[in-house]
Amino acid sequence: ILNVEQSPQSLHVQEGDSTNFTCSFPSSNFYALHWYRWETAKSPEALFVMTLNGDEKKKGRISATLNTKEGYSYLYIKGSQPEDSATYLCASARDTNAGKSTFGDGTTLTVKP
Amino acid sequence: DTAVSQTPKYLVTQMGNDKSIKCEQNLGHDTMYWYKQDSKKFLKIMFSYNNKELIINETVPNRFSPKSPDKAHLNLHINSLELGDSAVYFCASSQGVGLHNEQFFGPGTRLTVL
């Protein structure tokens, strides 16, 4: 994988459903993986920064896992609420201090009441 | 208190004009970034500055010139604006240049070139 890919592109769930989506990234020279939550007409908001293989992070009902050897991260949302509706972006950084990260195209989640 | 602020929020201008977008962060961070959200909603990095020094310059036309007068500011100047420059531009900052650091984004500036 040369680019950062996210799937699915969009997701519609009912309130209360749990859901997850995937970020795939180049596993070679991995440095860090970021997850962002981006609501329409707002700016991206950082959710997690993960650096170590096997990392698991949690913030409320949202959690993320990281597999740097195979180059993927999962984002889980437990008991989705309408306010979770947003685009979830991941960004991968390779081992450089140049401060560069490549963003995926995002997964747009819509939670219906 | 706004952590990362951008001015203006909206900018409508004619093709060929020169314009600037300002960014300021009050988080004490030493690294700042400019991103462009293109027509397909993708977020692409344009520039990154660490301690007022340019550390990333992606394939961006020379018409775009960032200027960092101090660590708290990173302004974006655009010469000879073209229709294709219409986009939302986001400023961000982080503490440290390493990408294990969380980035904080500004509210964005929507530029429309007529």
Notes on the structure:
- In chain A, strands 2, 4, 5, 9, 10 and 11 form a six-stranded mixed beta sheet that branches. In chain A, strands 1-3-8-7-6 form a five-stranded antiparallel beta sheet, with no helix packed on it.
- In chain A, a hairpin with a 7-residue loop joins strand 9 (86-94) and strand 10 (102-103).
- Chain A is globular and about 40 Å long.
- Helix content of chain A is 0%, strand content 55%.
- Chain A has strands at 5-7, 10-14, 19-24, 30-38, 45-50, 56-59, 62-67, 72-77, 86-94, 102-103, 107-112.
- By secondary structure, chain A is mainly β.
- Chain B is mostly beta strands and 114 residues long.
- Chain B contains no helices and eleven strands.
- Chain B has strands at residues 4-7, 10-13, 19-25, 31-37, 43-50, 53-57, 64-70, 73-78, 87-94, 104-105, 109-113.
- In chain B, the strands form two sheets. In chain B, strands 2, 4, 5, 6, 9, 10 and 11 form a seven-stranded mixed beta sheet that branches. In chain B, strands 1-3-8-7 form a four-stranded antiparallel beta sheet, with no helix packed on it.
- In chain B, a hairpin with a 2-residue loop joins strand 7 and strand 8.
- Chain B is globular and about 35 Å long.
- The model of chain B has no long low-confidence stretch (mean pLDDT 89).
- At the A-B interface, strand 4, strand 5 and strand 9 of A face strand 5 and strand 10 of B.
